[in-house]
Each structure stands twice: as structure tokens, then as C-alpha cells.
């Protein structure tokens, strides 16, 4: 074997080794990212999860708003990326506890009885005005001592929460997307899809409750979202009982 041929053979071998090492490194990084994503969402390989569907506000039938359907599609893509399976369940047919399967619950308490139950038991510091005749107060979100009213199409709010039973990290979480309008629910799911890696680094497997603001949805749809505050402590602290007046 002359020197030129030997150099060619060595070059081919070196290229092959480099390609193999690159493939191993990429595979390792991909698998590590997948495991982190699965841990954050509580979705190991081939696990089951629930998508709890609300109904269109004011409608007697299970009619899902267009933006809520978009939210469900985005969540389904996240679940598929974790190599998990999903079951879609109506909000008034989910008669089971939580912690055994990861749950994604979409919609405010006015259209989702499951969400109303979660707010009552998991987030006692949160109230949403669901009275149909309340005018500008409709949909107002109270968290602790603060109240957030919506300006339809201009300034709207949504809660994004990851919660576990009794704060334990060894059980499957429930994710809440509780917005003042259907478009804000989609905004929250899109925010989660875009920022889940950062949220996982910050909160790990713990609980959090974030208040998001959807800006000018009539022009920008669900794309422009601002993080207002981490309201975990306020949302999990029961609201004081109203004072009883006696005549």
C-alpha cells in the first residue's frame, strides 16, 4: 500500500469514526431532552394521559370552541412528542381523581365543571366571575387580593398551572389552562409548548401557577403573550371568608 492509498483509507476511517461519534452524541442529547420532557409532563413511554374538553360557553351540548380545539391539537402534539397516548374526555364525564394519569384541563369554570372542581380544591385563592349578567365584571379573575378584568380583544388573562396532589413529585401532574376566553386558552397552550424547557429548568417536577396576559388578540391572535407574575403562593392560599354583617 503506497502512501496516497494509506492516507485515503485513514481519511475514510477517520470520517466514519467522526460520523459515528456525532450520531452517538446527537442520539444522547435527543434522548436526554426526551427524558426531561417526559419527566416535566409526567409522560413516560407509552403512558396514558387525559385531555379534558370543555363545552362552548352558553351551549347545552358538547360543542368546543374553535380556539379550544386548536389548544387541544397543540397539546396532542406535545403528548405525541413524549411517546405517550391521549384519551379525550368531556368535562362532565371525568369522574375520577388525579395523580394516576397526567391530565390537561382546558377552559374556564363557566364551561368546564372539571376546571371548577380543580380551582376549588387545588387553587382556593382563585375566583372567576361566571355570572352571565355581570357586564364588565364577566370573566374577571381574582387571585388573592388582586382582580384582573378583561378588555375583550385587547387585554385578556389566563392561568397556566402545573399541579400535583399534595405537592408530591412522584405522582402525575395536572395542567390547567384557565382563560377568560377560548383564545386565551390556546395562548396558554402555545406558551407551554414554546417554554416548557425553561419552565422545567426553573420548577423541575414541582407545582407552579403563572398568570399570563394575551395582548391585542383581535390583531395578533394567541401569539403575543406576556408573563404577568408567578402567583403560585397567592393562588394556593384560600381567600378570606367575607365578613358577616348583622343588623
In short:
The chain crosses the membrane at residues 6-29. The protein is α/β, with parallel strands linked by helices and 247 residues long.
Please describe the structure with a list of short key phrases separated by commas or semicolons.
transmembrane; membrane; 247 residues; alpha/beta; elongated; single chain; three-stranded antiparallel sheet; seven-stranded mixed sheet; transmembrane helix; Secreted protein
Helicity range:
25-40%
Give the overall form.
elongated
Number of strands: 10
Low-confidence stretches: none
Record the strand order, biggest sheet.
Answer: 2-1-3-8-7-9-10
Task: Describe this structure as you would to a colleague.
By secondary structure, this protein is α/β, with parallel strands linked by helices. The chain has six helices and ten strands; from the N terminus they run H-E-H-E-E-H-E-E-E-E-E-H-E-H-E-H. The protein has helices at residues 3-41, 66-81, 113-122, 182-203, 217-220, 232-236, and strands at 48-53, 85-90, 102-106, 126-128, 141-143, 146-148, 155-163, 174-179, 208-215, 225-230. The strands form two sheets. The chain has a seven-stranded mixed sheet, sandwiched between helices. The chain has a three-stranded antiparallel sheet with strand order 4-5-6. Helix 2 runs parallel beside helix 4 (182-203). The mean pLDDT is 83. The chain crosses the membrane at residues 6-29. It comes from Streptomyces bangladeshensis. This is Secreted protein.
